Amino acid sequence: MRPPPRTDPAPVTGWPAEFAARYRALRYWRDETFGAFLATRADRHATRTAVVGPSLHTGRWTRLTYAELDRAAGAVHARLRAAGVRPRDRVLLQLPNCVEYATYLFGVLRSGAWPVFTLPGHREAELTDFCRIADAAAHILGGPGPRGADPRATAQRVAGRLRATGHVPPLVVDAGAALPEPATAPPPAETGAEEVAFLQLSGGTTGTPKLIPRTPADYLYSVRESARICGVGPETVMLVTLPAAHNFPMSSPGILGVLHAGGTVVMAPDPSPPTAFGLIESERVTMTSVVPPVLQAWLPAARRTGHDLGSLDVVQVGGARLADAVAARVGPDLGARLQQVFGMAEGLVNYTRLDEPDDLVTGTQGRPISPDDEIRVVDGDGRDVPPGTEGLLLTRGPYTIRGYYRAGAAGFTPDGFYRTGDLVRRLPSGHLVVTGRAKDQINRGGEKIAAEEVEGHLLAHPRLRDAAVVAMPDRFLGERVCAFVIPDGPPAPSAAELRRHLDERGIAGYKVPDRFEIVAEFPVSAVGKTSRRDLRRALTDLLRANTERSP
Ligand code: OOB
């Protein structure tokens, strides 16, 4: 069946010509496309193991060589083409960590369609938004969804919502189904290295999600350099414990960095110590990337595990701030080297280097990949602050986007710097220390939640007059979500009722507030806006009073 024609992808804000010329001249940007990327590796490393993990199709633990991965990607391409998916169509890729993640990722890329990297936890609210913004032609899904939900049922609800607003629902592609004969695979699509190849998701700060257009030229530059900086080679065995869709396990150096170098990617179905440690032992894993809460669960477990973790050489930690004291435990408890990673799907990635002294590795979040990553640390008026002082991080460079998909250049300075919303201090060595955040976002153990998005869903409740969502400090996750709500008269809806309301709205579970506070009014700032800062302060006082009261 051929789906109806889709809109053309709207133009994206690219790099100005003089920057593009410079990045090309410096060989940061090359001609390699993702179709060619895999084909070259399949020639070079045909019989080496590329991907290991559970298979949605067979339900068994599966190993694919580079040649097999390339053939399977060809079969996926054939399947998508037969279904009417065309180059530059947008395709939601929503799979758990499994071998099909790799075959479908490369199959879509080979077809020239653009994967949209959704998370397994996304539900109908997020998926409907992505479909609308990207006018998605297909939705690749499989495996059980969050809390055992059936992703097909979710896709049906998405279709209903889209039809209700005059949109055409995407074709549903089940990645657990058998694939056609690879012999029918068409040649890789001929798209340019400087054309958009996929859409990453932004952590976001606003009510509607933002999509990040990335090109093979810019992304593969960051991948090659990441692989080099992190010492990735053919002997590397990388355990992917975070959802593969995140930029961190995808490209820092992640799945792409390891495949670039001819190494092996091991897909972990979950990051728990028994699963991860079992795989580290059985697959002789050398490297992995985790968020701080996962590391905090691993450290005590590693001290008493019966598993042999001796192969593990490098543990990368990023996505949220790692406490210096926890950082110092990685060597003693895991017997591995720590690498801190401070990055963002919009581009810029910082690494502590593997040969740097301990104080930099445990006390900073690293320095940029590229000598051409431009870093500015500014005050609220956009003026550079003195070196070493806290300020807002702005950045521009060869793999940092200049604008979101179909959103113009909002979130960027007129001269093209991305406003990260992160507060940092920059050391004379160029290392950055992340000191805080000045954006309306909650970082719940590495998962980013836009306050405004959750507020919007809460405000749809008929008995709420106002809602303000803020971060609540948490010993384990770093932050959790707290919603302050003003009821529209008594009786106020209970927390259980509000949770049910959000569940019916179909938002991802990790965005549902961990705590609700019913209040009569919100503190306001000097300009008359709700002051989230004062709410955070009130919450801290409240939490402190609670701990003092409990025995
Ligand atoms: C990574 O990417 P995103 O897009 O999910 O989130 C980016 C934001 C940053 O702006 C910052 O607020 C926070 O996540 N963040 C960190 C951090 N790493 C990311 N905050 C403090 N310390 C860190 N080490 O999270 C991401 C992308 C590529 C590589 C690594 C992480």
Describe the structure in your own words:
This protein has 551 residues and is α/β, with parallel strands linked by helices. It is built from 17 helices and 24 strands. A 9-stranded mixed β-sheet has the order 2-1-10-9-11-12-13-14-15, with helices on both faces. Strands 4-3-5-6 form a 4-stranded parallel β-sheet, with helices on both faces. The chain has a 4-stranded antiparallel β-sheet with strand order 16-17-18-19, with no helix packed on it. The protein binds 5'-O-[(R)-(benzoyloxy)(hydroxy)phosphoryl]adenosine (OOB). The site of 5'-O-[(R)-(benzoyloxy)(hydroxy)phosphoryl]adenosine has 22 residues, from helix 8, strand 13, strand 18 and strand 19.
